[in-house]
């Protein structure tokens, strides 16, 4: 609950906002100071202070924010592909984790026209990719922020190691993949995987355009006045980088996997020939991983192939997206394995990215093994034989911020898992994977926690093994 003082700053904000025509401007005074007679003097000893501008990940100091935890995002957005114009309102439900005089959200570009906190106008300003909201909240208060904004989305373009990501306008819509920190290019958020939340999407696009988000449709799409609105809901916690609002002309096939999991597959007309294959393989592979890793964590599965030539795929929750290529079984197996490793279990810090990519790459090896193509040992041997010095020089247990998606994070990360499997044996390794998944379902994880579980499973110290495969800049001896 907000205290009475909130009303005072709310009134102050109203004045400040109308004076500035509602546009984002610097406040004339940071956080309205409480008057001496205000009830805030009776409050707990710890004064309200600003939430930090980052969540505390040393790799990306500006990403995420401190002082609050988001529980739910409701994104009511309209996109016009012709004008490349995105606008609407984001409603963010959160809990304060300290007394807050102000807090930040991550947002890149756009014009913010109005911010409210618990229904009252709030003062705000913009600086770089930070939106600062002035408020007065107590530790543990649940609160609701609305941000009205509009403009032309600016994706992060062509960065050396990450390519183009975020909200990417395409000829007929948008291709939206936000790993690692592109959510801020389309909605105000606590843009870091350490703060997961559930999502509702109300997406409006011109008639004839399909809007695809995470989770499931909660009602049939509705067309009115040449505009169609799609209502999607992701009812399980999701990292911001896994949220999507992919729009355009799509062919869609829906149904159930053989194991009974709802499947949604969509392809850009250029890839219509792969729609049935995408639908079938995605269902089959989701069923398979449900046996290997434990029950599928979400309510539906699927995939999207769009014609934007991203050069990569992303494991968007419930609907991995493939950017400008026909996915083969191996990459579908990879992206769907991420639904367990990365999506249900999310990293707490980017340095632990091998917990996503090493596991998803190992899943590719398991897929081949389980289908009688080649054993994981064969894949390991080949990776070992093909490894360059660069792979041995990059310890995947400490992902580098300037080279997050280095091959070592994928391949040497997978080799680390194989080395563990060889060391403890299949009868311990596979139950351990299931336990990892079950123990941390919908949560956040660290490398330390994984090592602890591995040692507990093995009944002995495994420091040398993990040092060799995750942390040292030398080539470990071959295993198997
Ligand atoms: N997690 C994705 C995958 O392994 C890769 C994402 C790459 N992101 C980027 N901005 N390049 O499939
Ligand atoms: Zn991956």
What this model shows, in words?
This protein has 2 domains: 2-17 and 350-362 and 376-471, Neutral Protease Domain 2 (Neutral Protease, domain 2, Orthogonal Bundle); 20-241, Immunoglobulin-like (Sandwich), CATH 2.60.40.1730. It contains 10 helices and 25 strands. The protein has helices at residues 5-19, 275-292, 329-337, 354-370, 376-386, 389-393, 407-424, 426-439, 447-458, 463-471, and strands at residues 49-50, 68-80, 85-96, 100-106, 111-117, 120-121, 124-127, 130-137, 142-151, 156-159, 163-169, 174-177, 197-206, 210-212, 216-217, 222-224, 227-238, 246-248, 251-256, 262-267, 301-306, 313-314, 321-323, 346-347, 444-445. The strands form 6 sheets. Strands 2, 3, 5, 6, 9, 13, 15, 16 and 17 form a 9-stranded mixed beta sheet that branches. Strand 10 and strand 11 form a beta hairpin. Helix 4 (354-370) crosses helix 7 (407-424), helix 5 packs across helix 7 (407-424) and helix 7 crosses helix 8. Residues 1-43 have low confidence and may be disordered. Bound molecules: arginine and zinc ion. Arginine (ARG) binds at residues 162-163, 165, 179, 312-315, 335, 357, 405.
CATH architecture of the largest domain: Sandwich
Alpha carbon gyration radius = 23 Å
Unreliable runs: 1-43
Q: Characterize the largest beta sheet: strand count, sense, and whether it forms a barrel.
A: 9 strands, mixed
Oligomer: single chain
Shape: globular
Which molecules are bound in this entry? arginine, zinc ion
Average pLDDT for all residues: 92
CATH homologous superfamily heading of the largest domain: tricorn interacting facor f3 domain
Structure classification: alpha+beta
> What is CATH's topology name of the largest domain?
Immunoglobulin-like
Can you tell me the CATH class of the largest domain? Mainly Beta
Classify the helix fraction into a percent range: 25-40%
What percentage of amino acids are in beta strands? 25-35%
Q: How many distinct domains?
A: 2
Q: Span from first to last CA?
A: 59 Å
Number of E strands = 25
